[in-house]
Hints:
About 25% of the residues lie in helices and about 45% in strands. With about 400 residues, it is of the alpha+beta class. The protein has two domains: about 1-160, CATH 3.30.1330.60; about 205-375, Porin, CATH 2.40.160. Strands 7, 8, 9, 10, 11, 12, 13, 14 and 15 form a nine-stranded antiparallel beta sheet that branches. The protein has a four-stranded mixed beta sheet with strand order 1-4-2-3. A two-stranded antiparallel sheet has the order 5-6. A hairpin with a 2-residue loop joins strand 8 (about 220-225) and strand 9. The relative contact order is 0.10.
Amino acid sequence: MFSSEVHFRVNSTNIDRSYLGNTASIDSLKAIVDSLGPNFISRIEMVSKSSPEGSYETNERLSMGRMESTRKLLLSSYPELEPYITSGTEVEAWDELLNFVARDTVLEDSTRRMICHFIQDDIDLNMRKELIQSSPEYKYIFDTYYHRIRRSGFVLYKLKVPEPDMTIEISDFDIDYGDDMYRIPNYDTLRRAAMPILKPSWFFDVHTNLVYDAFMTPNIGAEFYIKKGFSVGANWGYAWWNNQKKFWWRLFGGDVYARWHFGKKAKEKPMQGHHVGVFLGMLTYDVDWGNVGYIADYKKDKFSVFCGVEYGYSLPVAERLNIDFNIGLGYLGGQYRVYQPQMNWYPEEMHYVWEETRRRNWIGPVKLEVSLKYLLGRDNYNKGKKNLGK
Length: 390
């Protein structure tokens, strides 16, 4: 494990290499990554903090901006590390200020205890700031500790690699020097020993749309993460229910889509949080509830197509489960036939009388998902969430 940090100036999200030893910290981090190799890093944890002066909203913006600047700094040199980065923010790092003040050796004991009491007391944040800033020792505390809190920290974890098997078949050869015989090993064979090949993390899921399930349409889908917040996926549904005298409920079809995930949650781990995307799909159906029927049959070249844009949010609910809420707006069109079901008296059987052929051109909501997603892939789990049933 290796840790490092970069510091920020007051009210700034830019990384100044000349400030508080940032150049040495950045160079040491890059040296560690280069010496290990990006493929031998299991994860990098990043936490960005702000000092507790000013408004909370401003400090929250600063913490998010500092985290993004730190991510960009690392990914500019090592873009392949993006799936292994987990990041977070600590707005107004009171706990860190408390540790500094509690260990201070310059402040008088009574003053130190008073400041610690203000920090620990469960009072309004603005009131806490006013009490501390009204203290005569505030300037000393600000000048001594606040700049040390405005920072982004890295913790880099090395992948545990099993010891390679160094048992190697070595071809030896003999050199004859008259009465003496020397056996010389073939050292070229030694260079064939290699470290194990490490496989990168994969992030993907399988899912089912609970809305379709509620309408008696079994379905399945899968989504695969590519990189830089982008993923692709596909869905497919199939239903073939009927009662010859009462109803028909037959449909099948699916869609393919591409999504871009963004926001705080998406930066912590791929394929969660907010996402937008585009989709394209095809649908055939034969629906009859007893009075009138509608059919769009791919055999007659009368299937429907739909496409559009979508927005959604993927919510972690368990260690390997997300619920994804998604709505799509766009176009749904295609020809379909209208028919009238009629029952003959003798013999008693149902006939379907064609009435007309229509064309649908609909613009509006065309897609609704509440999908239960099972996460697959190494490192593709929700930290802090427990498995259901545990």
